[in-house]
User: Fold this.
Amino acid sequence: MTSDGDKSDAVSSFCITRIELDERSLARATADIEHERKVAIYDLLEENHFEPAGAGEGPFELYLSIVERRLVFDVRKAGGAALGQVHLSLAPFRKIIKDYFLLCESYYDAIRSAAPSQIETIDMARRGLHNEGSEILRERLEDKIGIDFDTSRRLFTLICSFHMR
Assistant:
């Protein structure tokens, strides 16, 4: 899955302008999951802060994959010149992703039949777990790639999309 940002106006030099997800790493997807991935990529490309340590100014391209149970951030300059890879163990994310998906299922079930207060409670818990996963990502990337909270949230969504079925 590939997407390019179409940004003709002023772009921060510390941003991702292209992102690609390794098709071999992705779980088999329904049309709804494909849509979620596209929306996450679109949101990420619309607004992000991405500053790889020692890489100088961008903009950057990011290729995400999972190799041997490790999340791989393959970072390149715009145009494809390789800058390096950051490998992160998925172990710290496994439980939070599992719990996040369980809450998502509960949320979608609740939308059909639950009272608004129950839906809101589940949604708050779901967002809380998403924020927690985002913070773990920021901590794991610290000293490797500088990202802001919103970029971390969007990247965490893409990490989750590798596991969506």
User: Anything to note?
Assistant: The chain has one domain: 2-161.
